[in-house]
Amino acid sequence: MDDSARDIDAELKQIPQRLEEMRNSVQTLETMLAQERQQLSEAEQLKVKQTGELKERSEGLQRARKKVAQATSIREADAGEREVEANRRAIKEREDELGRIAQAIEAKTASLAEREKDFEETKSSLQADEESSKARVAELEEQRAKLLDGRDRNSERGDHHQRRHMHGVPHGATAPVDNRAPASERATSVPALPPDHHS
Questions:
Q1: Does the pTM exceed 0.70?
Q2: pLDDT tens, 57-87?
Q3: How far apart are CA 17 and CA 162, in angstroms?
Q4: Phi, psi (degrees; rounded to nearest 5) at 37
């Protein structure tokens, strides 16, 4: 196989390998996108939950303060104060958690937007490469077919020429006499002598 044919075969092998690598990249990005969307959805659901709990604690704080204000004994006042403090701590925890959730959502949203951009660009690149590769493969296969066809024609002409020299005797020619053969086996054109009637 000559260098041209080897180069064509190498490129024909590389094209599907490159496309497969790009498809794997698209699949990987798509999987990551799905994971990040799921994480963002979970963070938003947690935000809703924490917001609801914060609202409940705020309402509990208002009730506890009202109990303190309406307490008729030190015991009731102390119980109300403890309830007020518990709600305050819970509110602070929920607010801190909501702050962390908001930051996570913001970061995840930005990351997701960047990931979606990469995914769309890679997907578009793959689609364009698939289309151009079809044309390139057709072109290479045509070149390869021409090379093989030309090689077969040259081979047939060479075989035919060789057969003409190796087999058969040219028209009108006589076979050469082998002078190395015994005299009794050599062909002769001398006519036989007439019988001797005097003997």
A1: no
A2: 999 999 999 999 998 999 999 999 999 999 9
A3: 43
A4: -65, -40
